[in-house]
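Usage

Read records sequentially. Each one opens with the input sequence:
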Amino acid sequence: MSRRTRALVFLLVALMAAALAAAIADGYGTSVAGGYGALRPVAVVATEIPGGRPIEAGDVASLVTSRRVPARFVPLGALRDPAEAVGLVPTADLPAGSYLLAAQLRPPGSTRRQRPRFGRGRHPVEILVSGAEALLAAGPLGGGSRVDVVVTTEPAGSGSGRTYVAAAAVPLLALAVLGEDPTAGEASAATLALTRAQALRLIAAQSFARRITLLPRG
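and closes with the structure output:
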């Protein structure tokens, strides 16, 4: 076999090996994606966004990006399109890399005229919850009705998710149904009177929990 023939054989073998490796990698990626379910677009903070200032149309492309994430990992209330944030005001500083949630944004100029008293160390905090239509069907709520906030986490590996009471007997100030969420059913915005520790715990839960549910106190 001549040197030229050997070189052609080696090149052909290398190309076949590369094609086989690419096919295996593509098949593995498809298998992993299939295991986590369908992908859906979600808005993610690309650069830290300061609170209290409207997100301008000219800045949204540099502040917010869009990614495709398995639906089971998308938190309740996450925006699908960065354009949905245009004109809205973040209620607090939004760190880079976090999901952009509807509960973190308000229309410009929407301020509370009076701050009612909720008890020492409690402040109004809005979180997104699921299944609240059952509470509304039972009668009018708000104005200080007490509820337990229950968090259900995603399953870990082959195990099942954990369900626990993240905040007990907290005043429910307001409850509004927002619409259908593809991963958790009907989504609602609940305004609760929370301590700082409770607020931080529930805000964090919005990023990893499968469901956040309200249970009325008897």
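Summary fields computed downstream for this record:
- The mean pLDDT is 77.
- The CA atoms of residues 43 and 201 lie 22 Å apart.
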